[in-house]
Structure formats: structure tokens, C-alpha cells
Design brief:
Number of domains: 2
Strand content: 15-25%
Shape: globular
Largest sheet: 6 strands, mixed
Helix content: 40-55%
Number of strands: 10
Order of helices and strands: EHEHEEHEEEEEEHHH
Distance between the termini: 49 Å
Length: 233
């Protein structure tokens, strides 16, 4: 386990459960995960975030693949099932949300330069396992809104650094498309009011990211600049 100097009992609880805990200053989601797999004692690694749990069916699928010697792929992906304020979302943009998390670190890893919305990749074929990775992403709506705003800023800064620019058309159309694609075309409405709120918040994420990218492209800051103390009384 890699811990970025947390101030709660996370590290102590992990050590008490038998885990090897490594401390590392956080400098990005992708970098932290890549560091973790480089410290692994075995070649095959299963990467989990703190808010994720392996479901029973997925556990059985992973054990079966291990019994076969992982002979059919360089990595495995599986669906991620997110709990959203009392209900698991099974439609829309939220599901199946397949992620590649089990792989041979000699042939894959957390590559690239993007530190947010990072994804693992492998050299070679990958297969899909049955079962779900259970995801508990938010403790409250306030936390979700704060988290999505931070991710929107990080993505806007990343895209701006790569030369990408927002257009007026994207400012207007991109958030609406994200909502209608997830809520109607992919059936997010089937998750009731949970699906409606989720679709609205995800559309708002796209709106925030696009606005921030527009501001950066026009030389405007997206965070409050630090005030310099001029020493005046």
C-alpha cells in the first residue's frame, strides 16, 4: 500500500492487517500508482483505490484466471459498479465503466503524462472478467461537487498544456451532449432520481472543464492567485 502521508489512522490500520505500507509525497494520481506497482513483490498486480472493493463474482473470476496462470492475456479489465447515495447505478455513463486493473507489470503500467482520469495500459491482449469492482466514490453531494471541480481544473490545465483550446460551440454543446448521451441514449433515466442527479453533476463537470479551458486559452487564471505580502503596515 502507498500512503501519501495521511493524517488519519489509514497507515496504522493497513499495517495491523498485514500490509506493507510505503509513504510517498503525492504528486499526481498516475505517478502515485506507477510508483506503487514498481514496488510490488510479484509481477502480476491488482490495483485498487481506497474507495473500491472486489465483489464476490469478480474475486472468483480473478482466482480462476490465476489458476490458469494468466495465460490468455497481459491484463484484465472488469466493470466498475458505483454506489450513488443509496443506490448502485447500473445504466448511463456510470456503468459498466470497465477499467483495466489486473495486469502483468512487466508488460504494462500507469503510463503517459495525464495525472487525472488516469488509466493503465498493457503491451499485448487484454481480456474481460465477469463480476464487478464495487465503487463507493462519494460521502456527500458536497464532496462530489468539490471533487469534480478539482478534477475539472486538473483536466483543463492538462489539455491547455498540450495545446488544446475550447471553442464557443463546445462551451454551449459539450455539457448538454454529456447529459443527453448518459441520461437518455445510455438509459441513465432507468436509475431513477439517482440517475438524473448523477447525469446533471457529470454534465456540470464538463461545463466547468470547458469554461476553465476557455479561460486558460484567453490568459485568465482559474484559481485565485496568491497575494504577495509587500510588508506594508
Amino acid at each position: 500500500m502507498v500512503d501519501s502521508h495521511s493524517t488519519d489512522a489509514t497507515a496504522a490500520l493497513a499495517q495491523a492487517a498485514g500490509a506493507r505500507v510505503l509513504q510517498r509525497r503525492f504528486d499526481g494520481f498516475r505517478s502515485q500508482k506507477q510508483f506503487a506497482i514498481e514496488q510490488a513483490a510479484h509481477d502480476w498486480v491488482l490495483c485498487l483505490d481506497a474507495d473500491e472493493r472486489v465483489g464476490d463474482e469478480l474475486r472468483a473470476s480473478i482466482l480462476a484466471a490465476r489458476e490458469r496462470g494468466f495465460v490468455d492475456a497481459a491484463g484484465y479489465r472488469f466493470a466498475r459498479l458505483s454506489e450513488y447515495f443509496g443506490r448502485f447505478l447500473r445504466h448511463g455513463n456510470a456503468y459498466p465503466d470497465r477499467v483495466l486493473r489486473l495486469f502483468d507489470r512487466r508488460r504494462g503500467g500507469w503510463r503517459g503524462t495525464r495525472e487525472v482520469h488516469e488509466a493503465a495500459s498493457v503491451d499485448g491482449a487484454f481480456a474481460t472478467l465477469r463480476g464487478d469492482l464495487i465503487h463507493y466514490p462519494y460521502r456527500s453531494l458536497q464532496q462530489q461537487l468539490a471533487k469534480t471541480e478539482r478534477y475539472a481544473r486538473m483536466m483543463a490545465e492538462h489539455e491547455h498544456a498540450r495545446g488544446k483550446r475550447a471553442t464557443l460551440a463546445k462551451l454551449v454543446l459539450a455539457p448538454a451532449w454529456r447529459f443527453w448521451r448518459g441520461y437518455l441514449l445510455r438509459g441513465g433515466f432507468r436509475d431513477g432520481w439517482h440517475g438524473l442527479v448523477y447525469a446533471y453533476v457529470r454534465a456540470n463537470y464538463v461545463r466547468q472543464k470547458t469554461i476553465m479551458l476557455w479561460m486558460l486559452g484567453n490568459g485568465q487564471p482559474v484559481v485565485t492567485p496568491e497575494r504577495k505580502d509587500d510588508g506594508a503596515a
